[in-house]
Amino acid sequence: MHTNIEEEDIMKNKYLTCFIEEQVYGISIVDVVQITGMQEITEIPEFPNYAKGVINLRGTIVPIIDLRLRLKKEGAQYDERTCIIITNIEGLYIGFIVDSVNDVTNIFEDDISAPPQMGNGYVNTYITGIAKLNNEIVVLIDLKKVLNEKEIESFNMINEEIKGA
Prior knowledge:
The protein is of the alpha+beta class and about 160 residues long. Helix content is about 20%, strand content about 40%. The strands form two sheets. Strands 8-1-2-11-10-9 form a six-stranded mixed β-sheet.
């Protein structure tokens, strides 16, 4: 019989790999609530360019972030491979658009290097490490840290306004 601690240990090495441009990114499977195909997004005025709007996911309003734009990459057309990775950040469901989802794979701590340091003192909080997997470099990111507290608070407020409407 598995205990919760054993299950957490097993899950902590599992990463959902996805693509943004040609780069492979890894997201801890523990942070993934659901993966859904691209769907119609309702735009919200005055959102930043990387915040595409909201979707209605089985009655839950979910803000949608284009991870490509949030990572300061060029925008791209969405296609049949485009997916939304749903996560839960501080009780708020947030969806992150990626170019495509690859698979769930094991990446062990011994295979992970610290993220590179930036020379100008900038600290990138959402890149948690760099791993080598089947001769590919995988950038490990923490979706909970892609947005700052103020952004999460704004999405929470908008969510409450929509619920109250």
